[in-house]
């Protein structure tokens, strides 16, 4: 049993975060009128601080800031252009270099196999494009959904 | 935990929209974080004109550096950091101090307080007048103390979030908040006792 009164810090901790207070301290407070009064005072103080009017700007901050924002500058997509150019060059060079082999494979393969491979490739591309469009639409919907942007 | 994730997701959408040129989204960010910025501006800056400039400066800085925001914290915490540092810079420029020293709570010894406490006095103390008195006393506190008290009790931020905003160790934040509350309580008690005499 703790006989000395709790320190101010212990009282504050008991009021603000009771779960952090040891059982021994809680027992003392339960039996001590002085500590109970001090805890009640802090409880009242905390509630009053919480209820104190919050400061507010007396001007429209959002409008003031938005009118000062610089115009968005779209950076020229150098990286995308370079990557695309490099990819096209690589495909063209590969085609030229491997053309004799490719020509031999194509001419020796049965027509059914070639048509099947081509169809499969086209179908996969269509499905991928559809998935991309669907995903994009979903993202736009989420972005425009008032609930997700609710403040 | 899921609230935090939802908030981060919402932050991410807003930031992405702003980076894609949507100014309206930045307006939403301002509306969302304005109460926090106002708390710091009002608690740390006394001049209304300077407060207005600083509030705008905070958001212009945030807009300029938004592409560098890595979502390692909540967007509001990040903007809170900018606001705190901007106010701090202002105080330094004006040669004002955020906090004097650590000796303030030695003014009214704990023993004296305990000895003088009478239940009826304390009952009177925490009467209807308390709210008004408290408001005045909060304003009398050092800028850092009143900022921390407001962030914790009014904005309901955790010690960890306040530590992140102020770049102070969490233990120091806790210590300062405890000290600020003690000063508040003792000042109110003193004031009340004086008015009784």
Annotation keywords:
heterodimer, A: 151 residues, 3 domains, B: mainly alpha, Rna Polymerase Sigma Factor, Chain: A
Model description:
The complex is a heterodimer of chains A (151) and B (197). Chain A is mainly alpha-helical and 151 residues long. Helix content of chain A is 72%, strand content 0%. Chain A has 6 helices and no strands. Chain A has helices at residues 8-16, 23-31, 33-51, 61-66, 78-108, 111-144. In chain A, helix 1 (8-16) packs across helix 3 (33-51) and helix 2 packs across helix 3. The longest helix of chain B has 27 residues, at 170-196. Chains A and B meet through helix 1, helix 3 and helix 4 of A and helix 1, helix 2, helix 3, helix 6 and helix 7 of B.
Structural class assignment of chain B = mainly alpha
Question: Whole-number radius of gyration of chain B?
Answer: 20 Å
- Global outline of chain A: elongated
Q: What about the largest sheet of chain A?
A: none
Secondary structure layout plus pairing:
The complex is a heterodimer of chains A (151) and B (197).
Chain A: H1 8-16, H2 23-31, H3 33-51, H4 61-66, H5 78-108, H6 111-144
Chain B: H1 2-19, H2 23-44, H3 48-65, H4 75-93, H5 110-116, H6 119-125, H7 129-140, H8 143-153, H9 159-166, H10 170-196
Helix pairs in contact in B: 1-2, 2-3, 2-4, 2-8, 3-4, 4-9, 8-10, 9-10
Short structural description:
The complex is a heterodimer of chains A (151) and B (197). Helices cover 72% and strands 0% of the residues of chain A. With 151 residues, chain A is mostly helical.
